[in-house]
Amino acid sequence: MVSIDVWNASVEFPIFDAKTRSLKKAVLGKAGGKISNDTKVPVIEALQDINISLRHGDRVGLVGHNGAGKSTLLRLLSGIYEPTRGNSRVVGKVAPVFDLGVGMDPEISGYENIIIRGLFLGMTRAQMEKRVDDIADFTELGNYLNMPLRTYSTGMRVRLALGVVTSIDPEILLLDEGIGAVDAAFLERARDRLNDLVRRSGLLVFASHSDEFLMELCNSAIWMDQGRVRMQGGLREVLTAYKGHDPFENMPQHVLERLSAVGGTA
Ligand SMILES: Nc1ncnc2c1ncn2[C@@H]1O[C@H](COP(=O)(O)OP(=O)(O)OP(=O)(O)O)[C@@H](O)[C@H]1O
């Protein structure tokens, strides 16, 4: 059974080349984690005393302003960062989807990149070979799949990457906002695949600034504020506290209908 447990974990970044203050007036910072100047070298306290316990079936949205610590938390959960203090334990095969382009090689073909990217996300070569035709259909890239990736436009790369990502079977899926930044029309086509992907995964943690996306994919949320967990609970309740108003209030009717159809929290 998959699980994520984090006990009193902190992640800090010492900054060795920080410049001394040159602004005429001290600017009150709202975005970003706390910067501690107690030591000789300034330290960015990206995560402070995080306690989280997630289990199979949890679909958690991470919300919070810029620099609140969402991406750092995802990196901690994926094992990219070790906690500077405290502990974390993740049981299950993790697929980190932070940057759609990571793990792609510009010199090899689209087909080859499909396999390589799948391996990077924890699939086997045999599994990817079974799925390659389906992914190829979805991308609509035709003969371009035989060409090196460097000949692709940005949008073509995104199609390929999204095709692969939505074909995998992760136990724990860690998604960062970036995926919401792709071309809207294509995302519309990818929506069903993305929903299926989330349904197949045992546990989802998704950092996003998009209410609509969060409501579609998540059933609970964690509000990060200056590196700390400010609130944890049902998605609607947390979003309402974070935004200061109920995000469903102004949601157009067609969106509400779609959200209830996909089993979102509407
Ligand atoms: N590699 C790094 N080196 C130094 N500081 C970092 C590093 N990565 C993140 N930080 C700092 O950690 C804090 C949290 O950043 P993080 O990227 O986790 O925020 P976020 O909530 O994902 O923000 P956004 O919504 O803008 O993506 C910020 O203060 C940021 O400056």
TrEMBL record:
Residues 18-251 form the ABC transporter domain. GO terms for molecular function: ATP binding. It comes from the Bacteria. Pfam families: ABC_tran (PF00005). Keywords: ATP-binding, Nucleotide-binding, Transport. Gene3D superfamilies: P-loop containing nucleotide triphosphate hydrolases (3.40.50.300). Belongs to the ABC transporter superfamily. This is ABC-2 type transport system ATP-binding protein. It comes from Streptoalloteichus tenebrarius (strain ATCC 17920 / DSM 40477 / JCM 4838 / CBS 697.72 / NBRC 16177 / NCIMB 11028 / NRRL B-12390 / A12253. 1 / ISP 5477) (Streptomyces tenebrarius).
